[in-house]
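Item description
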Amino acid sequence: PRVRRQRQMCIRDRDITDAVLINKAIAGAVELSANQRHNSDVYADGELTTSDATTLLQFLVSMIKILPVTE
């Protein structure tokens, strides 16, 4: 069987596919590693929620300059 590798979601190379992966994890369609969950918490509230996906999208269109958002 063919195994699909999930992106590691590194801090430096985030893109739209990371926001999709966050939403899939929230929906239970994929399971993230501990490192992926940590890197996905861009809203910095300790939970993986739609706020993380939205924050990442805002970062990608330069509405937010620095991740994670801690305010």
Observations:
- The chain is about 40% helix and 0% strand.
- Residues 8 and 36 are 6 Å apart (CA to CA).
- Helices lie at 16-27, 34-40, 50-60.
